[in-house]
Amino acid sequence: MKEKVKTKYLLRPLTKKIILRLAALYNLVWGLAIILFPNFLFDWSGLTRLNYPEIWQCVGMIVGVYGVGYWIASESPDEHWPIVLVGLLGKIFGPIGFLKAISEGRFNWTFGATIVTNDLIWWVPFALLLVGAYQSKHSRSNSVQGVKS
Questions:
Q1: 23-57 burial by CB neighbour count: b if 16+ within 10 A, else e?
Q2: Quick check: pTM over 0.70?
Q3: What does R_g of the chain's alpha carbons equal in angstroms?
Q4: Residue 114 to residue 135: CA distance in whole angstroms
Q5: SS3 helix, strand, coil % of the chain, rounded to 5?
Q6: Interior CA angle at 36 toward 32 and 41, to 5°?
Q7: In the chain, which end has fewer C-beta atoms inside a 10 angstrom radius, N or C?
Q8: What is the DSSP letter of 38?
């Protein structure tokens, strides 16, 4: 008689879906706002406007595309973990680039408020999603091999 493999997961399936749907909606809204109002953050934070706001609008487009990816991943987060990984890497490298710009005097701390909402608040949820995907993959492969976890 085979023993049923039981694994405790960090996040329930509905929680995973909600996290990714919230990330998707946030990114779609933020990306659209940057596309429509490319100078807003610069004006708000007291930085000089870009000579070519189209470059910043492209950033908005990329952020929006991430939103589409997160929405797709929300249907099966464990299967679409690479989308979450790429998102988390961007959310890690963004603040690193921001700190470099701060150290060079190119950005100010007010502009950095975007780092909190765009990046930092997503580190833990995305990391938990990735751990969950790892657990799910390894519990499935162990159950196929008949290994208890």
A1: bbebbbebbeebbeebeebeeeeeeeeeeebeebb
A2: yes
A3: 19
A4: 32
A5: 70, 0, 30
A6: 90
A7: N
A8: T
pLDDT number for residue 4:
52
Rounded CA separation 4/26 (Å):
39
The answer, yes or no, to whether residue 5 has pLDDT greater than 60, is no
Q: What is the mean pLDDT of the chain?
A: 90
Q: Return phi, psi of residue 85, to 5°.
A: -60, -45
Give CA–CA dist 43/56, Å, rounded: 13
Written as one string, the DSSP assignment of 63-108 is: HHHHHHHHHHHHTSTTTTHHHHHHHHHHHHHHHHHHHHHHHTTSS-
Residue identified by tokens 């610069």 is 42
Residue 36, CA distances (Å) to 24, 42, 51 in order:
18, 14, 16
Is there a contact between 7 and 139 (Cβ–Cβ < 8 Å)?
yes
